[in-house]
C-alpha cells in the first residue's frame, strides 16, 4: 500500500520556509548599538567595527545555508516520493537548519573561543552527514526516481560523500585547536566517508532501471 | 451554493508558513550567553551547560511540531474542500501551533516547575484534540474526499482518537505532579477518547460511497 | 499591452508569508518571566497572571489576522489579474498587516491606556478600508474575473463596505473614550461607508458579462 | 548537459519567504516602550513620538523592499531557467535583502548620524546593482526566455540600469554629507550606469531569436 507518503510539494514548502526564516534570522544577531551621543559618527563607527566578526559570521552562514538549500534541492529533484523514514530524517535535517543561526551567533560573538567552534563545526558536519544519509536512505527505500540512470544517482551520492569527507578534512585544523581527540575523530570520519564512496562506484555499463 | 470555500493550496501555504516559523522560532529561546572573559573556554562551556534543558526542550518541541505537521498534512490529503467551520477550527489549530514556542520556552527555562508543565501539556492536548475534532467536523460536513473508502476514513479517525487517548494517558504521571484533580481529569479525558473510538468502528463490508 | 502584470501565485505566496509571520510574531510579545526562585509554583503562576492581557490580545489579534487573511483570500479568488495599482495597494495592506503585531503588543501591554486604542483601532480601520478600496480599485481597473456575475461582485463589495461600517460603529464607544472628535470622526466614517454601499446596489436582472 | 538547473518555483518560494520575513522583521525594531505609569496617556504619547523616525524608516523600507520584490519578480518572469551562477547571484541578492532590516533599523534609530546613511545607501545601491547584474548575467548565459523579443529584454535592462543610475544621482546629496570622496564615487557610478545603458540600445529591426 503506497499510502503513508508525504506530498512532496508541501514538504518542499516547509523546507523552503524553514530555510528562508533561518537565513533571515541570522541577521537578527547583528544588533543596532546603543549610543551615548546619537549624532557621533566616531562612536557609531567604533561600535560597528566590533560588529565585524558578527557580520562576517552572518555572511558566511548565509552562504552556507544557501549552499545547503541548493544541495537539498538538487537531491529532492531526484526523489520521486517521500515516505515516513525519509520524512523523519528530513525533519532532523530541518532541526539542524533552524539550530544553525544559534551556532552562527555563538561563532559571531566569540570567534576566538574554541567552544564556539566546537558547536559550529559539528552542526555543519551533522548537516552534511544527514543530507548524504537521507539520500542513501531514499535510494535504499526505492524513493528515488527510477527514470534517472543509476550512474547519475551514484555520481550524486559520491559527490555527497566527497563533500562530507572534504568538510571533515577542512575542519581538521580547527579540530586540532580543540584537542587531539577531536583531530583524530575528524580524520577518522573523513576517512570513513572516503571509504564509503567506494560503495557507490559506477558499475560498468549499468542499464537504466 | 458551494461559494464560501477556501482554496486548499492557499490554506496549506498559510499552515506551512506558520509551522516553519514556529519551528524556527523555538531556537530563538536558546540565547547566546554574555561572557565576562570572551576567550574563556571554561566559562562558555559552563554557561552552555545551563542551556541543556532549553536545548532539549527545543529538540523535543521541534520533533513534536514536525509530528503535528505530518499528522495535519495526512488529514488534509483526505480533505477535498475547506469550508468556513473547518477553516475556523484550522485557524484555532494554528493559534495553538504559534503559541507552542512560548509553552516550549517556559518548559525549557523552568523544567522543574510544575506550572510550566501545566501550560505545556494542555497546549499539546488541545493541539491533538483540535486536530481530531477538525477531521470529525470535516467528515460531518462532507468535506472529505468521497473517493476514499469509509473504512480508511474511519481508521484515520480511530488513529486520531487513539493518539489523543494515549497522550492523555502518558500525561497522567505529569498531571499527578500538578495535583489529584489534574490526574483525574486527565484519565477521564483519556477514557472519553477511548469511548469515542467506538463511534468510528469500521462497519462490516461497507461499500465505498 | 498587458505586460506590467504580477503573477498572482507569487503575490499570494508573499501575502501568505507575511500573514504567517505576523500571526506567529504576535506570540513573541508573550515573554517568559524571569523568576527569583526557579521552582516556585506560586511565583510563576503570579507572573503568568500578569500575562493574561497580553495573551488575550494575542488570541484576539490572531483571530483578527485570520479573518483578514480569509477576507483577502476571498477577494483575491475573484481577481483574475493583478496590475501595478492593485499591487501597490496590496503592498500597503501588507505593511498594515506586518505593523499589526506592534499595535497588538501595545494593546496587550497597556490595555487600559487610551493611546494603545488610538493605535490599535485606526490600524484595524485602515486594514478594513484598504481591503474594500483594493477590491473597488480592481473592479474599476477591470482586474476582476469577468466570468463572475456582476450581482455577486456587487454583493461582495457591499459586504466589504458593511464590514467597514460596522467596525467603525463598533469602535465608536472606544473612540468616545479617546475624545469627542474621535467619536464624531468614527461615526462620520461609518455613515460614509453606509452611503457608499448604495453605489453597489445590484441592478435588476443584470446579465452576466 | 542541462542538469545543474534550479527549479524556478522553489527558488521563487525561497525568495518570497526571505522577502516576507525581511518585510515583517522591519517592524520588530518598533519597540513597545516601558512606561513608568501604565495608564498615563501623556507618557505613552511622548514615548511614541520618539518612535516616529523608526516608524517612518519602517514604512519607507517596507515600500522599498516591496519595490525590490516587484522588480525581482518582473525579471524572474522573463527568465526561463536558473543555472548555478544566476543562483549564486540571487543568493547574494537575498543576503542583501535580509541584511536590509538591520540597515533600516540603524537608519530609524540614528537618522541624523551620517554613519547610518553610510550603511543604508550602499546596501540599497548593492541591491539595485546586483539585480541589474543578475539580469545581465542571465541574458549572457542564455537563461532568458527566447520567446521574448530582444527589444523588450533590452528595454528591461535599460530600465534596470537607469534605475541604478538615478538612485546614485539621488543619493549624491546624502553622499556629500558623508564626504567629498563619497560624492565623487557616487557620481562616477551613476555615470558608469548611464554609459552601460548604451550597450543595451535596441538594434533596429532585431528579429526575435
Automatic annotation (TrEMBL), chains A, B, C, D:
Topology of the protein relative to the lipid bilayer: Multi-pass membrane protein
Matching InterPro entries: TMEM175-like
Cellular compartments annotated: Membrane
Pfam families membership: TMEM175 (PF06736)
Main location: membrane
GO terms for MF: potassium channel activity; proton channel activity
Keyword Secreted: no
Signal peptide location: none
Record's keyword terms, sorted: Ion channel, Ion transport, Membrane, Potassium, Potassium channel, Potassium transport, Transmembrane, Transmembrane helix, Transport
A GO cellular component entry from the record: membrane
Entry keyword annotation includes Ion transport: yes
Record's catalysed reaction(s): K(+)(in) = K(+)(out)
Transmembrane segments: 12-30, 50-72, 84-107, 181-197
Family, per entry: Belongs to the TMEM175 family.
UniProt name for this protein: DUF1211 domain-containing protein
Source organism per UniProt: Candidatus Geothrix skivensis
Amino acid at each position: 500500500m503506497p499510502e503513508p507518503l508525504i506530498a512532496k510539494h508541501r514538504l518542499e514548502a516547509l523546507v523552503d520556509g524553514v530555510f528562508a526564516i533561518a537565513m533571515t534570522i541570522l541577521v537578527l544577531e547583528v544588533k543596532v548599538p546603543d549610543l551615548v551621543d546619537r549624532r557621533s559618527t566616531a562612536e557609531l563607527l567604533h561600535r560597528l567595527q566590533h560588529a565585524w566578526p558578527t557580520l562576517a559570521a552572518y555572511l558566511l552562514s548565509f552562504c552556507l545555508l544557501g549552499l545547503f538549500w541548493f544541495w537539498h534541492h538538487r537531491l529532492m529533484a531526484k526523489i520521486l516520493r517521500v515516505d515516513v523514514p525519509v520524512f523523519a530524517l528530513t525533519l532532523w535535517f530541518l532541526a539542524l537548519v533552524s539550530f544553525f543561526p544559534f551556532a552562527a551567533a555563538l561563532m559571531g560573538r566569540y570567534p576566538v573561543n574554541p567552544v564556539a567552534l566546537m558547536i559550529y563545526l559539528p552542526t555543519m558536519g551533522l548537516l552534511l552527514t544527514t543530507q548524504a544519509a537521507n539520500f542513501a536512505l531514499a535510494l535504499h527505500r526505492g524513493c528515488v526516481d527510477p527514470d534517472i540512470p543509476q550512474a547519475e544517482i551514484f555520481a550524486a551520492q559520491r559527490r555527497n560523500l566527497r563533500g562530507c569527507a572534504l568538510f571533515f578534512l577542512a575542519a581538521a585544523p580547527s579540530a586540532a585547536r580543540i584537542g587531539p581527540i577531536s583531530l583524530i575523530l575528524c580524520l577518522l570520519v573523513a576517512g570513513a566517508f572516503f571509504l564509503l564512496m567506494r560503495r557507490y562506484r559506477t558499475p560498468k555499463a549499468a542499464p537504466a532501471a
